[in-house]
Amino acid sequence: MTEPIVVVGAAVLRDGRLLAARRSAPVELAGRWELPGGKVEPGESPERALVRELREELGVAAEVDRRVPGEYVLRAPYVLRVWTVGLLPGSPAPRALQDHDELRWLTVDELWDVDWLDQDVPAVAEVARVVWEVFSPPPPLPVPVTDSGAPPPNPRSSDAGRAGM
């Protein structure tokens, strides 16, 4: 079995808000939102990778706080692991420098106002549980109407994809 490649995500917190970053690249992810971060390089700890990625992507000086429970499958062999992060005193404000075109600070009530990447949805819900001690499920998927006028089955309500969990 192939060892997973860890991608680190940052739940950057400030004044009771979570930082969301809108992707500008690659094209298939553009316009959707994510927790900033990136791949852990060989020989690098996840925490060091997170600090490096935030410096490169957002131009900030950050301090890793604690790991958010869970591991989120991206695509084989990549997995996402998330940490809460704070900005160090004197750090510049985050800027969209690489692969992002907009940043937004979200309160717990605004978490689902942005279109998160699918793999970030459970991670963001877990961040809400850990940080704000609230269960904040994403809104349900919109139900499209077929040509016959009947709604198709809701993929989130199916257990078909849960066989391996």
UniProtKB/TrEMBL annotation:
Family named by the database record: Belongs to the Nudix hydrolase family.
Transmembrane segments: none
Region (Disordered): 140-165
The keyword DNA damage appears for this protein: yes
Matches recorded under SUPFAM superfamilies: Nudix
Nudix hydrolase domain ranges (all copies): 3-130
Pfam families: NUDIX (PF00293)
Keyword Metal-binding attached: yes
Keywords assigned by UniProt, alphabetized: DNA damage, DNA repair, DNA replication, Hydrolase, Magnesium, Metal-binding, Mutator protein
Record-given protein name: 8-oxo-dGTP diphosphatase
Catalytic reaction list: 8-oxo-dGTP + H2O = 8-oxo-dGMP + diphosphate + H(+)
Domain of life, source organism: Bacteria
Cofactor(s), names only, from the UniProt record: Mg(2+)
InterPro entries named among the record's database cross-references: MutT-like, Nudix_hydrolase, NUDIX_hydrolase-like_dom_sf, NUDIX_hydrolase_CS, NUDIX_hydrolase_dom
EC number: 3.6.1.55
Gene3D superfamilies, sorted: Nucleoside Triphosphate Pyrophosphohydrolase (3.90.79.10)
